[in-house]
Amino acid sequence: MNDDLRAEPDLDQPAVFKPRRKPRSKNWLAYQIALGIILGGSVLWTLATLISFAAARLLLGQWQVTVPGLTH
Q1: Angstrom distances, CA of residue 43 to CA of 8, 46, 49, 50, 53
Q2: pTM more than 0.70
Q3: What is the CA radius of gyration of the chain?
Q4: Which residues neighbour 37 within 8 Å (Cβ) at sequence distance 6 or greater?
Q5: Mean pLDDT over residues 2-13, rounded?
Q6: What is the DSSP letter of 4?
Q7: Element (H, E) at 42
């Protein structure tokens, strides 16, 4: 066995201590959840508006959809 193994500090390089980061507030998770709900709701509202717009344009006949091979 190696009985001479010891942990020695490295004196060639000075120790650099990083300052601790400010701890996050206790409500950080609540803020993240609220932001996700707001952004998700905004995206869903935008998609619903675009789908409604496209459906209205199709129903009013301002857009025409042609399917190859289908004739009337």
Answers
A1: 57, 5, 10, 11, 15
A2: no
A3: 32
A4: none
A5: 74
A6: T
A7: helix 28-60
Q: Would you place residue 1 in the very low, low, confident or very high pLDDT band (cuts 50, 70, 90)? A: low
Token digits of residue 11: 């004196």
Q: How long is the chain?
A: 72
Amino acid, single-letter form, for residue 33: I
- Amino acid code (one letter) for 13: Q
Could you tell me the two tokens for 63?
A: 């857009």
Across 13-48, b (16+ Cβ under 10 Å) vs e yields eeeeeeeeeeeeeeeeeeeeeeeeeeeeeeeeeeee
Tens-place pLDDT, residues 23-66? 888 899 999 999 999 999 999 999 999 999 988 888 888 777 77
